[in-house]
Amino acid sequence: MIMKSFHTRMAEICTVNKTRELRHDEIEELDHCLQQNANYIWEMLRLKNLSLMASMINDTEWQHELCREIDELADDPHASKIKKP
After folding, report:
1. Going by C-beta distance under 8 Å and a sequence separation of 6 or more, which residues neighbour residue 32?
2. Is the pTM value of this prediction over 0.70?
3. Residue 84 and residue 42: Cα distance in Å, rounded?
4. Which of 19, 69, 79, 81 has the greatest number of C-beta atoms within 10 Å?
C-alpha cells in the first residue's frame, strides 16, 4: 500500500508532539488525517472483500473492475476517489 499525504502529515504532527504540546489547529489537523485514514482503510477493505467475493463466484469481469478501483484508490495520493455511500 502506498503512503498517502495524510500519513505523512500524521507522522509530522506526532513527531512535533514529542517535543511540545500540539496547538489547537494541529489537533484538528491530526483528527482530520485520522478520519481520512479511516475512510481510506475502510474503502480499501470494502473493495478487497468485494474482489474476494467476485473471485469466489468466478465473476472475472467484476473482479477486474474491482481491481482497477483498488489500483486507482492506491495510486491517488490523497485518496480522494473514495465514493460516498
Report:
1. 6
2. yes
3. 12
4. 79
Helix (H) or strand (E) holding 1: none
Task: Assign 41 to helix, strand or coil.
Answer: helix
pLDDT score at 76: 79
**Helix, strand, coil fractions of the chain, as percent rounded to 5:** 75, 0, 25
Residue 57 CA to chain centroid, in angstroms?
A: 27
DSSP-derived 3-state class of residue 22: coil
Q: Report the phi/psi class of residue 58: left, alpha or beta, with left for phi > 0 and alpha for psi in -120 to 50.
A: left
CA–CA separation, 7 and 37 (whole Å): 7
Q: State how far the alpha carbon of 17 is from the alpha carbons of 14, 20, 30, in Å.
A: 5, 5, 11
**How confident is the model over 14-57, as pLDDT tens digits?**
999 999 999 999 999 999 999 999 999 999 999 999 999 999 99
